[in-house]
């Protein structure tokens, strides 16, 4: 189940190409974590509805790259990043990429400047513990 | 600031045409089924690939078209969409390697890491169809490859992107989950 309030506001694009910066045309947005997507798509796939081929290939992708294999682990990961106060997209990236170190996190995710190293390290440790030990 | 996730919930609008023979009991279900069939797996606005219809928010009042007798309905719905973004770091799956580079995929998005975007210590090995380094590391089909998207354009129902693995903390995660 997706949390309430996730939405995307669109602006008309005069150019047919995908622009470089999402902020040009998506001023407010909430991102979905890959682990949430994996759970959601698994539920859809288990239903009776038939989906096109692209659904299957995307499902295979999120299953293979999903870092959290149970609903409990997903919920715990969400709690950890929600408590961080980071923007939605930075939270999603932390969980999707699961950087091992503070240095790696800052290299991969630009919007972590507001978070001190100790706090970031604490978040990464908690996420790693959740990944390793929350399996049911 | 760049958005750094690939999946979103997106409000969308579509006008559905319902044939006279489709009108009758269970009309709402007919409209819902038709919407699912027509939009799921297609490219929506802003070049977002529509993975699924999450929910239908509103079905407007039907209007009869004089010439055809069909009814048109304006439907507002929430779509679950996929769209990678330029400069985003993502995990991809390697599904082919040639001398030109590494071909990866994320669902409907095809991603090419050209040979010039592969670190110099890796060279293409023709017999094994891998990129291998002098100290024995290999990037091979099936590996998870962490890339940074450099350019992206729509392609049919999906997208085509170019990416690099030359920056820090990018590259292959082998089948055992360890960095290569």
From TrEMBL, chain A:
<dbReference type="InterPro" id="IPR038324">
    <property type="entry name" value="Rpb4/RPC9_sf"/>
</dbReference>
<dbReference type="GO" id="GO:0006352">
    <property type="term" value="P:DNA-templated transcription initiation"/>
</dbReference>
<dbReference type="GO" id="GO:0000166">
    <property type="term" value="F:nucleotide binding"/>
</dbReference>
<dbReference type="InterPro" id="IPR010997">
    <property type="entry name" value="HRDC-like_sf"/>
</dbReference>
<feature type="domain" description="RNA polymerase Rpb4/RPC9 core">
    <location>
        <begin position="24"/>
        <end position="134"/>
    </location>
</feature>
<dbReference type="InterPro" id="IPR045222">
    <property type="entry name" value="Rpb4-like"/>
</dbReference>
<protein>
    <recommendedName>
        <fullName>RNA polymerase Rpb4/RPC9 core domain-containing protein</fullName>
    </recommendedName>
</protein>
<comment type="similarity">
    <text>Belongs to the eukaryotic RPB4 RNA polymerase subunit family.</text>
</comment>
<keyword id="KW-0539">Nucleus</keyword>
<dbReference type="InterPro" id="IPR005574">
    <property type="entry name" value="Rpb4/RPC9"/>
</dbReference>
<dbReference type="InterPro" id="IPR006590">
    <property type="entry name" value="RNA_pol_Rpb4/RPC9_core"/>
</dbReference>
<dbReference type="GO" id="GO:0030880">
    <property type="term" value="C:RNA polymerase complex"/>
</dbReference>
<dbReference type="GO" id="GO:0005634">
    <property type="term" value="C:nucleus"/>
</dbReference>
<dbReference type="Pfam" id="PF03874">
    <property type="entry name" value="RNA_pol_Rpb4"/>
</dbReference>
From TrEMBL, chain B:
<keyword id="KW-0240">DNA-directed RNA polymerase</keyword>
<protein>
    <recommendedName>
        <fullName>DNA-directed RNA polymerase II subunit RPB7</fullName>
    </recommendedName>
</protein>
<dbReference type="GO" id="GO:0003727">
    <property type="term" value="F:single-stranded RNA binding"/>
</dbReference>
<dbReference type="InterPro" id="IPR036898">
    <property type="entry name" value="RNA_pol_Rpb7-like_N_sf"/>
</dbReference>
<dbReference type="Pfam" id="PF00575">
    <property type="entry name" value="S1"/>
</dbReference>
<dbReference type="GO" id="GO:0003697">
    <property type="term" value="F:single-stranded DNA binding"/>
</dbReference>
<dbReference type="GO" id="GO:0060213">
    <property type="term" value="P:positive regulation of nuclear-transcribed mRNA poly(A) tail shortening"/>
</dbReference>
<dbReference type="GO" id="GO:0045948">
    <property type="term" value="P:positive regulation of translational initiation"/>
</dbReference>
<dbReference type="InterPro" id="IPR003029">
    <property type="entry name" value="S1_domain"/>
</dbReference>
<comment type="similarity">
    <text>Belongs to the eukaryotic RPB7/RPC8 RNA polymerase subunit family.</text>
</comment>
<keyword id="KW-0804">Transcription</keyword>
<dbReference type="GO" id="GO:0005665">
    <property type="term" value="C:RNA polymerase II, core complex"/>
</dbReference>
<dbReference type="GO" id="GO:0006367">
    <property type="term" value="P:transcription initiation at RNA polymerase II promoter"/>
</dbReference>
<feature type="domain" description="S1 motif">
    <location>
        <begin position="84"/>
        <end position="152"/>
    </location>
</feature>
<feature type="domain" description="RNA polymerase Rpb7-like N-terminal">
    <location>
        <begin position="16"/>
        <end position="69"/>
    </location>
</feature>
<dbReference type="GO" id="GO:0031369">
    <property type="term" value="F:translation initiation factor binding"/>
</dbReference>
<dbReference type="GO" id="GO:0000932">
    <property type="term" value="C:P-body"/>
</dbReference>
<dbReference type="Pfam" id="PF03876">
    <property type="entry name" value="SHS2_Rpb7-N"/>
</dbReference>
<dbReference type="InterPro" id="IPR005576">
    <property type="entry name" value="Rpb7-like_N"/>
</dbReference>
<dbReference type="InterPro" id="IPR012340">
    <property type="entry name" value="NA-bd_OB-fold"/>
</dbReference>
<dbReference type="InterPro" id="IPR045113">
    <property type="entry name" value="Rpb7-like"/>
</dbReference>
